[in-house]
Amino acid sequence: MKHSLDHLFGRNSRWLAIRSEVRHFGLWLALFLPVNGPAFLHAQAQGAATLFEKKCYSCHNIGSGNKKGPDLKGVTAQRSREWLHSFIQSPAAMNRRGDPAAVDLFRKFSPEVMPDQALSPEEMDSLMALIESLSNKNQIFIPAGAKLSRPIAAGDAEAGRRLFTGKTLLSRGGTACITCHDLDGAGLFGGGTLGPSLTAANIKYRDPELIAILQNPNFPTMNSIFVARPLTDEEIVQIFSLLQSTKQANPTAAVAPGPVDLKFPLLGFGLLVLSLAGMNRAWKGRLRGVREALVGENSPRAGSLDRSQP
Questions:
Q1: What are phi and psi of 45, to 5 degrees?
Q2: Exposed/middle/buried for 250, CB within 10 Å: 0-12, 13-18, 19+?
Q3: Ramachandran sector of residue 113 (left: φ over 0; alpha: ψ -120 to 50; beta: rest)
């Protein structure tokens, strides 16, 4: 066919240009068609599942009930694409503007506050497609990567305790858990209060959820610390083992935040008072002999004695 057309049109420049365009269109079409094939769609779904596991699963389920945030099953049928995009990007801003649905969510899941998510429109659309697909099939989201690298062994809980308290440094330079979190029996004076107590972490979260959090913490403070210094697989096993053993020792631990442990702040205040008292005592004795001499020389009695001498 090509040779007959070439014979018909010869080496006409316009015909050569048309033939070149057709060839390029054919190549473009050949590249485009597989994108809509089953293999591409499967890869796209897998990418969305990985994204959901990394960015959303620590707070949301699809079909397994509410967690720190709402179950997302059916959300694409309840809210428009535009609303979901706006809320994902800046939920707090929508709450401040008084959006009724956003205000209701913030009220229902208080004191939790969903952080802004730096996701592209394409990433948000892929997440919505995943949610819609699982919702329509009445399936739940099960994280593929939320599993330990090996079974828990004897000694893992104690190794996890040492990592938690900072006695053993995290190999990639992350901050010890006790800096921000408390854990029953983890330290003499308790832990930090910037984050929640983790005594009930294994009660609040199912095992895959807790493992996923340790693998990819999506809470703003933790993410800023561990995004470049993630826990190793071995450290995840050991810290998870510690939290599991804490659950076994405290099976009725309260999931809701309890009263703040004041031992550490009170100890700090007491040490401050003692330090100030010690500094005051040391300062009062400083150059005491010199001050007494100066006071004696300038006292009225000393002056009268000086004048009485011949």
A1: -65, -40
A2: middle
A3: beta
